[in-house]
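[recover] target loaded
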């Protein structure tokens, strides 16, 4: 991945398709709690798999925890960290 300039729109699109949120992902604040917005742990696995496919990355075991998928900003930071590793 060349640049991580603004991956938030892609993350929001993945959340719209896979997170089963009660709210529209495009309207959520970047730091909003995705679990409070309706995402289940099963949906978070689907989100993780979609992120891996979209960004051609693999989440290491140490990042497979609830907090990493708890908000758009946490996901963005994790994806950027993996992509730049």
């Amino acid at each position: 991945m060349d640049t991580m300039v603004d991956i938030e729109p892609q993350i929001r699109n993945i959340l719209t398709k896979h997170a089963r949120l009660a709210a529209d992902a495009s309207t959520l604040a970047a730091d909003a709690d995705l679990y409070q917005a309706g995402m289940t742990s099963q949906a978070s696995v689907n989100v993780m798999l979609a992120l891996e496919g979209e960004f051609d990355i693999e989440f290491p075991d140490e990042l497979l925890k609830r907090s990493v998928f708890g908000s758009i900003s946490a996901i963005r930071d994790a994806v950027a960290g993996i992509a730049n590793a």
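[recover] notes: The domain at 8-83 is CATH 1.10.1200.10 (Non-ribosomal Peptide Synthetase Peptidyl Carrier Protein; Chain A).
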